[in-house]
Amino acid sequence: MQEIKIGIIGYGTVGTGVAKILSRKSSLLSEKLKTRLILKTICDLDVRRKRNFMPKGVLFTRNVDKVLDDEQIQIVVELIGGINPAKEYIIRALKNKKFVVTANKALLAEAGPELMRLARKCGVDIYFEASVGAAIPVIKAIRDGLISNNVENIFGIINGTSNYILSEMTQNRCDFKSALRQARIHGFAERNFKLDTSGIDSAHKLVILSRLCFGQGIKLSDVYVEGINEIKLHDIQYADEFGYCIKLLAIAKIAGKDLQIRVHPTLLPKKHLLSNVNGVFNAIFITADLAGEMILYGQGAGQMPAASAVVSDLADISKRLAKIEWVSSQTFAPSQNRYRRISPIHKIKSRYYIRFMAIDKPGALSLISKILGKSNISICSVLQKGRHQGQAVPIIMMTHEAREKELRQALMRIDKLPIIRKKTVALRVESV
Questions:
Q1: Active site residue 194
Q2: Residue 51, Cβ neighbours under 10 Å: how many?
Q3: How is residue 34 annotated by DSSP?
Q4: Per-residue pLDDT at 252
């Protein structure tokens, strides 16, 4: 039976999970693949720390050359994250004719096309199923399952930390800080949680999905990003009264000749499938011209879900090396004939949820409505919560569809009114 030797760079949570699967599922994998996947070398900076799993017969080293320059190793698994030295290691691996498996969404978002071009030039490939949605096979679904389709839009809940926080706020009626505290207690939030709650992690993943779906060189700077840090419990409650829930959505959709790519808190109808994706679970809702609507749902993080996705890529590469039928991941590369303009955020049209904090006095609502009307923003419904003469109270509005630029201009003027006490909150509404 053919053997394929593997080297892992980075032996943290996911790396340990990969080693466990390759060891404990060895017989099953060999039976299915007709090939033996052999973990030969693990490289990690910290070789002294006690691990809860160490595979037998595997070289454990700090020297990355033992992986990158070993002619017997055919596949390098990069699991250290970040841009450098991960990028340097992947480049060396490709130049040494080694296939690469990575879960590094930040690096793929920044340098994916560059690395793919190098892989093609070197006659190898890069696989990255674990970079988005962990165990959810969204990369394969787009690359293989939708190969004859034109994808029209993507709506994704692709950050478990943010989704957990918003779910806690919704279900337990707690504020952002309390929900974040719970996320950290349960291990759902990293020490540096800001990448998650700011929307940047979702933006990295959206860049990867968008390149696959729309076949062009989309950059992180093309993505409009807002996080969930400013969402208040009041917003959750008011949205609920209107029949909506709030989710951090990653959105990529075709609008005429433009392509909108954005990440931000969004109001969704409570009856929509994505509204019922709670806790640390992820879901990606895709509409394609032939396949129609579909949703992929599952655990978007965690040791074994992410490790499962890595091993899935290892299996694909083993089929390729064993001359079994395969489909290249080079569909990641830009295709000029499908290029669309990236729509700047100020050009989009949406319905909006708006929360004003205004002094409770006669004429306050009229002043706000007048400015909105002059900016061509039509009000669908209004809630005014509480009556405290002379004090600031929330005024909640749902608008009809309006252009983002006109809304922002109107809110700038409204926030300068003497009756307004806090910066106005505006969230976009999607019916999907």
A1: no
A2: 16
A3: S
A4: 96
pLDDT at 138: 95
Summarize pLDDT for 175-196 with one digit per residue, the tens. Answer: 999 999 999 998 888 778 999 9
Helix and strand totals (H; E) in the chain: 14, 18
Cα dist from 194 to 190, 199, 210, 229, whole Å: 9, 8, 23, 9
For residues 1 and 33, is the Cβ–Cβ distance under 8 A?
no
CATH superfamily of 348-429: ACT domain (3.30.70.260)
With respect to CATH, is domain 139-299 assigned 3.30.360.10? Answer: yes
Tens-place pLDDT, residues 152-164: 999 999 999 999 9
- The active-site residue out of 105, 140, 205, 247 is 205
Residue 329, pLDDT above cutoff 80: no
* Angle formed by the axes of helices 26-33 and 13-24, nearest 10°: 70
State the first-to-last Cα distance of the chain, in angstroms, to the nearest integer.
49
**What is the tens place of the pLDDT at every residue in 100-126?**
999 999 999 999 999 999 999 999 999
Instruction: Tell me the CATH architecture of domain 2-134+303-330.
Output: 3-Layer(aba) Sandwich (3.40)
Which H or E run includes 183?
helix 176-185
Residue 32 CB coordination number (10 Å): 12
Residue 71 near residue 44, CB atoms below 8 Å? no
* Tally of residues, the chain: 432
